[in-house]
C-alpha cells in the first residue's frame, strides 16, 4: 500500500540524506559522544537473543523523539502513566523511564507480530498527518514535518522510516489494547457508579486548628535550649556553600516562549551545543574560559550559595544546584545539566565547608525547633480531644454544627463539591478533602488532617442526588472512559506477563 507521506519526500530527499550522513559522522564518531561511539557489545538478552549496546542506544534515541513530541499515549503505556506524568512535569525523564521504554517497546513489537496486530503503511501515514505537532490551521503542514525530520530525526541519525516505526509502535499499542479490551465492556450499573463517584455533590462541614496558636503559647527556657544543644550538636552545622562558573545554554528570557515542535527543535540545538562544550572540557588541559570563548559563550560566576538556595545565575534550578554540589576538586566540571529552561555546564570555583555551630549561634534555630515540635504535639493532642468530643455528640444525635460548638470550636461549612470539581482558588484543603471523602460515607467524621498551617477535621453532612438528565447525556462518554481505563489496565497486566515471558536478562553473562 502506498505510503501517503513518502510521496512528499522526494523534493527534500537530497537535503535530508546529506544532513543524516553528516549527523551520523558527528554523532557516532566524536570521541566520548554517547559513551564513545557505536559499540556492538552485548548488554543483555531478550527472547533468547543478544541485545547490544548499539541497539540500546538506538532505542534510547527513539525515546528522545517520543519525549520531544510528547507522545503521551505511547509513553504512558510503555513506561507508566504516573512516571511519565512526572517526567513531563519536570521535563526530564529518569534512566529507569528510558530503560522501561527500551525493553517494553521490544516486547510490544514481538508480541504484536504474534497477535497479527501490525499497522499498515496507510494507517501510519494517516496517523502522522493527524498528529497535532504537524498541523497548521487544522491541516497537515509538510514543511513543519520536513523541518522536524531535519532538526530532530537527522541529528539523531534517524530517517523518516525510523519515525514511521515509532508511530507504528503507537498504533501497535492501540491495536493490542483493542484486542485485549474486547471483554471489558462495563455493565450499566458500573457506568452509573462511575458517574456517581465523580459527579455526586457532597456537603461538608469542618473545624480548623492553627499551628501558630499552639507554637505562640510554647515557652522555651535557657535550660531547654542547653539540653537540646547537647543532644543535637552533631547535626547543628552551617550549610556547605559552593561557587561555580556557569556556561548556560538556555532559551532567551526576553523572547516569545516557544511551544510544540519549535521548542523541541530549539531545545535540541541547545542540547547539542551543551554536549559539545562538555566534551571539549573532557580533553586534558582544557580551560573552561577558553572553551566558552571558542563556543562564543559568556561565562558567569555565581556567588557562594547553598544547595537549597540556587542563585539566579542557575535560573534557581534545583537540578543545577544538585550537580554543583556533586563536583569535587578531582572532578570539577559537570556533565550537561538539564533545567526547565535549557542546559548548563558547571565548573567548581570554591567551597565553603560546613562547620559546627556554637551554642550561641544555634540558639535561635533550637528555639524555633522546640517551639515547632512542642506546638505540633500540643495541636495533635487537642485535635484528638476535640474529635473525640464531637464524635460522641454526633452519636448522641446532634448535628456537626451543634457538636462543634459544644466542643468549643467554630464550625465551617464548605460549598457543595464533587470529586471532579477543580477550583484553583479554593486552596489545597479542598483537594485533600476531595481525595479523603471518596472513601467515606454520609455521616462519617474524618481523622485530623494536617496541612501547611495546622490542620482540620471534616464531616460528611450529605450526599446529594445526581442530576439524572446530565447522567443520561454523559452516560455513553462515561462508559467509553471506563472501557478505556479497563482496557489500559488489562494491557498493563498483559505487558507485565509478556515481559516476564520474554526472559529479559541484563548483563554480559
Secondary-structure blueprint of this entry?
Elements: H1 13-29, E1 42-46, E2 49-52, H2 53-68, H3 72-79, H4 81-90, H5 95-115, H6 121-130, E3 135-136, E4 139-140, H7 142-153, H8 160-180, H9 188-199, E5 202-210, H10 211-215, H11 222-232, E6 241-250, H12 260-280, H13 288-294, E7 299-301, H14 318-324, E8 337-339, E9 342-352, H15 359-395, H16 400-407, E10 412-413, H17 428-437, E11 449-451, E12 454-463, H18 468-501, E13 505-506
Helix pairs in contact: 1-7, 2-5, 3-4, 5-8, 6-8, 7-12, 8-18, 9-18, 11-15, 15-16
Approximate shape: flat
The portion of residues assigned to helices is: 40-55%
Share of β-strand residues: 5-15%
Number of domains in the coordinates?
3
What Rg do the Cα atoms give? 29 Å
- Biggest sheet strand order reads 10-5-12-11
The number of helical elements comes to 18
Class by SSE composition: alpha+beta
Q: Count the E strands.
A: 13
Largest sheet: 4 strands, antiparallel
What is the average of the pLDDT values?
Answer: 87
Straight-line distance between termini: 43 Å
List unreliable stretches of 5+ residues: 1-40
Amino acid at each position: 500500500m502506498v505510503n501517503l507521506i513518502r510521496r512528499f519526500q522526494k523534493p527534500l530527499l537530497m537535503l535530508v540524506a546529506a544532513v543524516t550522513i553528516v549527523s551520523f559522522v558527528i554523532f557516532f564518531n566524536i570521541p566520548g559522544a554517547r559513551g564513545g561511539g557505536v559499540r556492538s557489545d552485548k548488554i543483555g538478552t531478550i527472547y533468547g537473543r543478544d541485545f547490544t549496546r548499539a541497539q540500546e542506544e538506538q532505542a534510547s534515541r527513539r525515546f528522545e523523539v517520543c519525549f520531544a513530541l510528547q507522545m503521551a499515549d505511547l509513553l504512558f503505556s510503555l513506561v507508566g502513566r504516573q512516571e511519565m506524568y512526572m517526567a513531563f512535569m519536570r521535563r526530564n525523564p529518569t534512566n529507569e523511564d528510558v530503560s522501561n521504554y527500551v525493553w517494553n517497546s521490544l516486547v510490544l513489537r514481538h508480541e504484536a507480530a504474534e497477535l497479527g496486530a501490525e499497522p499498515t503503511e496507510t494507517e501510519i501515514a494517516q496517523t502522522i498527518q493527524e498528529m497535532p505537532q504537524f498541523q497548521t490551521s487544522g491541516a497537515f503542514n509538510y514543511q513543519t514535518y520536513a523541518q522536524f525530520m531535519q532538526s530532530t530525526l537527522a541529528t539523531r541519525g534517524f530517517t523518516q522510516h525510523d519515525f514511521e516505526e515509532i508511530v507504528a509502535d503507537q498504533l501497535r499499542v492501540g491495536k493490542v489494547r483493542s484486542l485485549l479490551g474486547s471483554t471489558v465492556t462495563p455493565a450499566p450499573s458500573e457506568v452509573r457508579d462511575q458517574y456517581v463517584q465523580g459527579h455526586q455533590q457532597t456537603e461538608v462541614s469542618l473545624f480548623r486548628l492553627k499551628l501558630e496558636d499552639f507554637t505562640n503559647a510554647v515557652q522555651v527556657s535557657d535550660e531547654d535550649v542547653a539540653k537540646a544543644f547537647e543532644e543535637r550538636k552533631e547535626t547543628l552545622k552551617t550549610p556547605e556553600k559552593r561557587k561555580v562558573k556557569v556556561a548556560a545554554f538556555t532559551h532567551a528570557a526576553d523572547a516569545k516562549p516557544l511551544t510544540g515542535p519549535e521548542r523541541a527543535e530549539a531545545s535540541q540545538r541547545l542540547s547539542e551545543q551543551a554536549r559539545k562544550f562538555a566534551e571539549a572540557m573532557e580533553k586534558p588541559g582544557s580551560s573552561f574560559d577558553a572553551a566558552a570563548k571558542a563556543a562564543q559563550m559568556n561565562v558567569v560566576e555565581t556567588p557562594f550559595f547553598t544547595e537549597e538556595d540556587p542563585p539566579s545565575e542557575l535560573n534557581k534550578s534545583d537540578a543545577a544546584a544538585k550537580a554543583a554540589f556533586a563536583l569535587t576538586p578531582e572532578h570539577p566540571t559537570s556533565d550537561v545539566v538539564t533545567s526547565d529552561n535549557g542546559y548548563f555546564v558547571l565548573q567548581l570555583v570554591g567551597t565553603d565547608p560546613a562547620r559546627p555551630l556554637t551554642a550561641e549561634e544555634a540558639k535561635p534555630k533550637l528555639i524555633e525547633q522546640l517551639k515547632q515540635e512542642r506546638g505540633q504535639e500540643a495541636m495533635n493532642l487537642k485535635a484528638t480531644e476535640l474529635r473525640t468530643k464531637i464524635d460522641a455528640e454526633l452519636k448522641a444525635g446532634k448535628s456537626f454544627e451543634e457538636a462543634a460548638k459544644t466542643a468549643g470550636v467554630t464550625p465551617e461549612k464548605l460549598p457543595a463539591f464533587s470529586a471532579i470539581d477543580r477550583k484553583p482558588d479554593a486552596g489545597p484543603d479542598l483537594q485533600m478533602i476531595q481525595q479523603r471523602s471518596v472513601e467515606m460515607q454520609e455521616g462519617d467524621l474524618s481523622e485530623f488532617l494536617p496541612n501547611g498551617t495546622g490542620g482540620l477535621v471534616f464531616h460528611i453532612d450529605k450526599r446529594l442526588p445526581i442530576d439524572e438528565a446530565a447522567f443520561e447525556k454523559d452516560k455513553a462518554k462515561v462508559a467509553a472512559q471506563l472501557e478505556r481505563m479497563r482496557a489500559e489496565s488489562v494491557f498493563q497486566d498483559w505487558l507485565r506477563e509478556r515481559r516476564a515471558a520474554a526472559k529479559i536478562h541484563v548483563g554480559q553473562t
